[in-house]
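Justification of computing resources. Each target in the renewal requires a structure prediction run like the one illustrated here; the chain below, 129 residues long, is used simply to show the kind of job we budget for.
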Amino acid sequence: MPTSLRAAAAALIIGILYVAGQVASARATVVVRVLSPEGAKIDSAVVLFHPDDSGKNGRDLRKDVWARSNHEGAATAELQPGFYDLVVMKGGFTAVTRKIVIEYKDPVVLVANLSFDPLVLCHLGDTFH
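Resulting structure tokens:
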């Protein structure tokens, strides 16, 4: 094989590997805004993004990603594309769960409206902390 042909083949292989690596490491910024029934921002809510392997061929190497909402009620995570189960939890509120799909769009903003949990209200009234 001539040297120029070898060099071209090597460059092509390196290019393919580079593009494959970029796609595999591509992530989208996801922001979850956590709000109370009145629309108030909720801080310290726990947010879980659990990978769902739907549509994946082979083993899904994504891991659970945890975040916590800040004083602005926003929890931020960097996620690889795919399906996830989103769970948003905070003491005194009923957890919110939903299926989401992350694509290569950036950023993704989701809203989680938490409601006061009736069981907690039944036992503690509206004075829980």
